Amino acid sequence: MTRTTRTKALLSWSSGKDAAWALHVLRQSSEVEVVGLLTTTNEAFDRVAMHGVREALLEAQAEAAGLPLWKVPLPWPCSNEAYEARMAQVCARAVETGVEAMAFGDLFLEDVRDYRIQKLAGTGLSPLFPIWNPDTTGVAADMVAAGLKATLVCVDPRALAASFAGRAFDASLLADLPPTVDPCGERGEFHTFAWDGPMFRHPVAVRGGEVVVRDGFVFADLVPA
């Protein structure tokens, strides 16, 4: 009888719905075992890079998912060289601990996918794209139908009205999005914080906080409830 072992993978974890959905999909696979969540953080503000989510909520997410959190603190401002150097360090550490792959929640941006493949080349980690699918209308509907709950924490007002910041990612939101906006925000129109769903053992308790404009983006802060 042949014993098969699953590929040990870290999941690139933005704290948003796509990463959460990737975790859900991977956990249904008999070939991959997610062994940790890897997140870049802004070491100057103790928040998730880009999404602006508090680290305390990131930690609560990882606890709810039942997985260890691999933080990659980034300086602010952060050059591309500094980012790549710190990511190279964590990739080397991952390989040393037996991790074999890095999974991403990308959906259809070919240039982003190509960049990830290029940067993982030679590291000993294989890239995985478990939810790669250009039909983001279908993906978004599947997320909502499965009970994934998330809040829009960052909005690019050049693409989407600032009033969408702080809204729930649900059927009502999908119906209200302009046709120019991707239903999953894949082009950066919006970012989310996932707080409940089939990938979590229990909901992450959050409440809405202040809405601020910073660096040209609208951020809806979330606070531990």
What does this structure look like?
This protein is α/β, with parallel strands linked by helices and 225 residues long. Helices cover 29% and strands 28% of the residues. It is built from 6 helices and 10 strands, in the order E-H-E-E-H-E-H-E-H-E-H-E-H-E-E-E. It has helices at residues 17-27, 55-65, 80-96, 110-120, 136-145, 171-176, and strands at 7-12, 32-42, 47-48, 69-74, 101-103, 126-128, 149-155, 190-196, 206-214, 217-224. Strands 1, 2, 3, 4, 5 and 6 form a 6-stranded mixed beta sheet that branches. Strands 8-7-10-9 form a 4-stranded antiparallel beta sheet, covered by helices on one side. The chain is globular and about 45 Å long. The mean pLDDT is 92.
Set down the secondary structure blueprint.
Layout (H helix, E strand, L loop, with lengths): L6 E6 L4 H11 L4 E11 L4 E2 L6 H11 L3 E6 L5 H17 L4 E3 L6 H11 L5 E3 L7 H10 L3 E7 L15 H6 L13 E7 L9 E9 L2 E8 L1
Parallel strand pairs: 1-2, 1-5, 2-4, 5-6
Antiparallel strand pairs: 2-3, 7-8, 7-10, 9-10
Give unreliable regions as ranges. none
Fraction of helical residues: 25-40%
Beta-strand share of residues: 25-35%
Rg for CA atoms = 17 Å
Label the structural class.
alpha/beta
Task: Quote the average pLDDT.
Answer: 92
- Given the C-alpha coordinates, what overall shape results? globular
Largest sheet: 6 strands, mixed
